[in-house]
Amino acid sequence: MHGYGGVEQLFYEEADEPRLIEPDDVIVKLKAAAINHIDIWNRMGATGIVVPMPHILGADGAGVVLESGQKVANVKVGDSVCLYPLTGCGQCEFCREGNENLCTNQKITGVTVSGGYAEFIKAPASHATRIPDAVSSVQAAPLQR
Ligand SMILES: [Zn+2]
After folding, report:
1. Residue 108 C-alpha to ligand 1 middle, in angstroms?
2. What is the DSSP letter of 38?
């Protein structure tokens, strides 16, 4: 999106591909994206979170692991996965208790970092969950963990 507002702010265009930098990240080739209510709120500017424009929306998605960092053990290249959108700071009391959804310094895919309305996405491998062969990417896109 190039600004806050209605669907007229959404554009289909080329963007830089994410690069694998961290050893515990994965690059996923997305096959499906879900529309989460936070995508709509973010497009409208209703989250109160200011993002640099242009911005790639998309909190929820599913696809295939294309690249995997050296420390990744839970998924491998070629696995079909769905992605969890929240990343806590890892330091606060909520994160230490396993409640990163309550973290006040969380990153949210598609809101504070580039999202899944794209061909490729970089994500922490810990947020990638392998999906069974019987579940399609379209079915898995809105699922999390
Ligand atoms: Zn935290």
Report:
1. 12
2. H
